[in-house]
Design brief:
Blueprint: H1 3-27, H2 34-62, H3 66-88, H4 97-125, E1 128-129, H5 132-151, H6 166-190, E2 198-200, E3 206-209, H7 223-257, H8 263-273, H9 275-286, H10 290-315, H11 329-346, E4 350-351, H12 353-371
Antiparallel strand pairs: 1-4, 2-3
Length: 373
């Protein structure tokens, strides 16, 4: 390996987040012309790639499932900040922005990240294996969170429309936070082994935990490098969300000019925000570590609901106007289909490419119906 190549590999992960943050600062008040928007887009893509790199460094240092949890929570915390920030700006879609963004996160993670991971993993390894106990408990937790936060508001009668009353919203916030905390405790302390990659036989049946120390990978980075990557991961994610926000007015204008539903704005921004997790999950799947891909997918969906609902509930103390959390009929049907397919995917603890394609078709149906409801 040449000296130039070594310098490039050392420098670009360090410089990209800082340059992206600089672009964010320089264009915060000036981003209405195409050169500035092009610069913002390039910086956004660079931030996404850098975030994946630094997340993998941190994950390698702290081990799994802590690494997947750190990336999921870091992305979601900043995503929550973006949701609240956009809600404070008011506008046409302020009342449904939280619902649309959270639902988009669920559909992207359950069908997009999971589907792509299964296809990539099965294409390379024929059949992929994972721990059905750990993955099943994650799916159960997300379904419960989504049921309380997104489904029940469509059927309650204490408030008009698809809204919770203040007391109902407070209950949903506390329940979401408590359930998310209980799962994190289970994943990281009580039953950590259920969320580690598994080895398998020729038929894809799990035979035990995968030996992560004997897979030929490099030794964990030193503590200083891990702390540096953690800081640059946060900088990268701040840049991702901030740059996505700068692009959102342009996205809104394009959506309005094309006559598309406002929910498309939330879909596009969610795709940008979840890009680091999508890339990281795909890489893990290619390495035959689909368990880590599923940890990222379901952990992100769980954090998106479990942290967003309490934050939005707290923000409603200062924000005026309605907050619609209940799903629309089309969203409800797609959510039910997604859950049914997901149950059949995870119940056996092994999967092949067809199951991934099924999830990707559901993702395509959701994207198409978001544009043409």
């Amino acid at each position: 390996m040449s000296a130039v190549t070594i310098r490039e590999r050392v420098q670009w992960p360090l410089l990209t987040p800082l340059l992206a943050l600089l672009v964010l600062c320089l264009t915060w008040f000036w981003h209405d012309d195409w050169p500035a928007l092009t610069l913002v887009t390039v910086a956004l893509i660079g931030s996404i790639v850098a975030a994946v790199h630094h997340a993998e460094v941190v994950a390698h240092k702290v081990g799994e499932p802590f690494g997947s949890l750190i990336l999921a929570v870091a992305v979601t915390v900043i995503e929550v900040a973006l949701i609240v920030l956009l809600m404070t700006g008011g506008g046409k879609g302020a009342s449904t922005y939280a619902r649309d963004t959270v639902f988009a996160a669920v559909m992207i993670t359950f069908n997009g990240i999971v589907g792509l991971s299964l296809v990539v993993g099965a294409r390379k390894h024929n059949i992929v294996s994972f721990n059905a106990s750990g993955t099943g408990s994650a799916v159960t937790t997300v379904v419960t969170l989504a049921g309380v936060a997104l489904v029940l508001p469509s059927f309650t009668t204490s408030a008009a429309g698809r809204e919770y009353s203040p007391s109902q919203l407070a209950f949903a916030a506390v329940a979401s936070l408590a359930l998310y905390g209980a799962f994190v405790f289970t994943q990281t302390i009580r039953h950590r082994d259920f969320f580690l990659p598994v080895s398998s036989d020729d038929t894809g049946r799990a035979t035990g935990l995968l030996d992560l120390d004997g897979d030929g990978h490099a030794d964990p980075p030193p503590a200083r490098a891990a702390w540096t990557s953690l800081g640059l991961l946060i900088v990268s994610l701040v840049s991702v969300v901030g740059l996505a926000k700068l692009l959102s007015p342009t996205i809104e204008d394009v959506v309005a000019d094309l006559g598309l539903p406002y929910t498309v704005v939330g879909v596009v921004i969610a795709l940008f925000v979840l890009a680091p997790e999508s890339i990281a999950a795909t890489r893990n799947a290619a390495r035959d570590r689909v368990q880590l891909s599923l940890n990222l997918a379901y952990g992100s969906a769980m954090a998106s609901i479990g942290l967003t609902i309490p934050a939005v509930a707290l923000a409603m103390i200062w924000l005026s106007g309605p907050l619609e959390l209940g799903l629309e009929p089309i969203q409800m049907v797609l959510f039910v289909l997604t859950i049914v397919v997901t149950v059949f995917t995870v119940v056996q603890g092994r999967a092949y490419a067809l199951q991934g394609f099924v999830h990707l078709v559901l993702l395509g149906a959701w994207l198409f119906l978001s544009v043409h409801p």
